[in-house]
Specification:
This protein is an alpha+beta fold and 172 residues long. The protein has helices at residues 5-9, 12-15, 38-52, 59-76, 135-142; strands at residues 26-32, 93-99, 103-110, 145-150, 158-165.
Length: 172
C-alpha cells in the first residue's frame, strides 16, 4: 500500500478504538476503474484477500459492505463529466483492506469531498426494497462501525471506511 496507508489510517484513530499502525498484520489495495463492473472486481479482490488471510468466514458480510461502499463511490464520488480538456483518471476509486489481529477495516477512496449521506438516518422505516438509498444503512447494520473523512494534502476526495471485529484465527 506504500505511503498512502497513513492517509487512510490516521483519521481512523479519531473515530474507532485505538488501532496501532505498527501491529497491522496485513494490508492490500486495489485500484478500481470508473465503471460499475468494478464492484465485482472489488468483491473478487476481497475474496482473494480474505482467503489469503484465512478469513473466508467473514467474506459474505465484508463483501456486502465492500459492494455498497464501492457502488456509492462510483455513483456519488465521481464527477458527472471530466472537466474540459482534463484526462479522466484511470483508477479514481481505490479499495484498501487492512487487518489487525482482531479487526478488519475496509476503506474506499473516491475523488469527491462531499460527505456520504444516509437515507434519513438508518431507522426501522428505511425501505429495504428500494433500489437505492439504503447502502449506508446496510454498511451500518453489517459492520461494527463506519465513518468517513476528507483527504488532505495532495490527494483530493474522501475515504469512507467500515470496521469489523474479528474472531482471532488459531494457528495451524
Amino acid at each position: 500500500m506504500g505511503t498512502e496507508a497513513s492517509t487512510v489510517l490516521e483519521p481512523l484513530g479519531r473515530d474507532v478504538p485505538h488501532l496501532d499502525h505498527s501491529t497491522v498484520s496485513g494490508s492490500a489495495t486495489c485500484a478500481l476503474p470508473p465503471r460499475f463492473d468494478a464492484v465485482r472486481s472489488a468483491r473478487d479482490f476481497t475474496r482473494e484477500t480474505l482467503q489469503r488471510w484465512r478469513l473466508e468466514g467473514e467474506f459474505d458480510t465484508v463483501a456486502l459492505v465492500v459492494s455498497e461502499l464501492v457502488t456509492n463511490a462510483l455513483r456519488h464520488g465521481l464527477p458527472a463529466s471530466p472537466a474540459a480538456g482534463a484526462e479522466p483518471a484511470s483508477s479514481p476509486v481505490r479499495l484498501d483492506l487492512m487487518r489487525w489481529a482482531a479487526r478488519l477495516v475496509c476503506a474506499v477512496r473516491d475523488p469527491s469531498g462531499a460527505p456520504p449521506e444516509t437515507a434519513d438516518g438508518c431507522t426501522e422505516f428505511v425501505d429495504f426494497t428500494a433500489e437505492s438509498g439504503r447502502g449506508l444503512c446496510l454498511v451500518e447494520s453489517f459492520s461494527d462501525g463506519w465513518g468517513w473523512h476528507p483527504l488532505t494534502g495532495m490527494m483530493r476526495g474522501k475515504v469512507v471506511w467500515a470496521l469489523f471485529r474479528l474472531t482471532p484465527v488459531r494457528p495451524l
